[in-house]
Amino acid sequence: MNQEVYDQLKQRADNASAIGGTLKFVVDDTVIFIDGTGDENQISTDDKEADCSITVSREVLEKLRDGDLNPMMAVMGGQVKIAGDMGLAMKVQSLLS
Asked: Which of 9, 18, 24, 46 would disulfide-bridge 53, Cβ 3.0–4.6 Å?
């Protein structure tokens, strides 16, 4: 479990508006599940089905977070894999910035 990645995403998810769906991050071997279907985002390490799944390495996630990598270029270059609801994927920016 990558506690630092989990803690950073949890802090951002707690401070962001509910995303309106479920989102699963797979960062290396760590799963982070965000349920934003209610009034606020709930975050856990449950490996459940989600409306949108994003698979990324910790290294790429840190570059995205730090602004060293353009999210669109990361997706186009295959460094970030997205499955499911693309509209929900677009809301991830608010969780990373």
From this structure: 24
> Which amino acid, one-letter code, is at 56?
V
In the chain, pLDDT over 70 holds for what percent of residues? Answer: 97
What is the radius of gyration, based on Cα positions, of the chain?
A: 12
Which CATH code, of 3.30.1050.10, 3.40.630.40, 3.40.50.300, 3.40.50.10420, is assigned to 3-96?
Answer: 3.30.1050.10
Torsion angles phi and psi, residue 41, rounded to 5: -75, 130
d(CA 21, CA 85): 9
Distance CA 96, CA 29 (A): 19
Q: Best-predicted range by mean pLDDT among 51-55, 66-70, 72-76?
A: 51-55
Which pTM was predicted? Answer: 0.87
